[in-house]
Amino acid sequence: MEESHVKIITFKVGDTGCLGSDIKIRILTIQGKQVQLGFEAPRDIPIYRAELVLAPKKRQRQNDKLKSATSE
């Protein structure tokens, strides 16, 4: 698995950032601790909240741990 890193960039409302050459992220609003983002990407690139993608993997790891604990 490839190691990842975090890039920290400061934006204001209306600013746009790019992920590669195909994906643009725009800061739409900031209200307190909530930030509303707009994504412009090709239709074949899915965009999800991380917890929706990571939750099934986490559940699978938990199930695997339970199975191994009960089979011992």
UniProtKB/TrEMBL annotation:
Quote a single Gene Ontology cellular component term: cytosol
An individual GO BP term: negative regulation of translational initiation
What lineage is this protein's organism placed in? Bacteria, Pseudomonadati, Pseudomonadota, Gammaproteobacteria, Pseudomonadales
Which superkingdom, per the lineage? Bacteria
InterPro entries given in the database record: CsrA, CsrA_sf
SUPFAM superfamilies for this protein: CsrA-like (SSF117130)
Keyword list, A-Z: Activator, Cytoplasm, RNA-binding, Translation regulation
Q: Select a single GO molecular function from the record's annotations and give it.
A: mRNA 5'-UTR binding
What is the name of this protein? Carbon storage regulator
